[in-house]
């Protein structure tokens, strides 16, 4: 499974919003500048995040984006599924022979477990140096 820039930059947006949770809306231009990313590209990514109900927009001079729920209630898997689609290491698992199918299912389940048990809050804290970095064994 390969996570594209959509997923990586989408997680960046969510982590930055998680760091600022409860402090009001955050403009995308601020996120883009602090992470040296294209604001235009982040604009494209925030649409699906808003449509899925993970973020909401606030208009006006002090507008921007905010998380719709507490960062501990949003998993990395929620974000990746919105931007990348279903989590699966290979397509057509059901067409594989039993030994390969079993391997692909185990890999898929391990990746899902990591993504679904890692919250935006975990990532925001790790990014701030508040917790030790995570080591995952798959």
UniProtKB/TrEMBL annotation:
InterPro entries: TR_Rrf2-type_CS, Tscrpt_reg_Rrf2, WH-like_DNA-bd_sf, WH_DNA-bd_sf. The keyword Kinase does not apply. The keyword Transcription regulation does not apply. Pfam families: Rrf2. Keywords: DNA-binding. This is Rrf2 family cysteine metabolism transcriptional repressor.
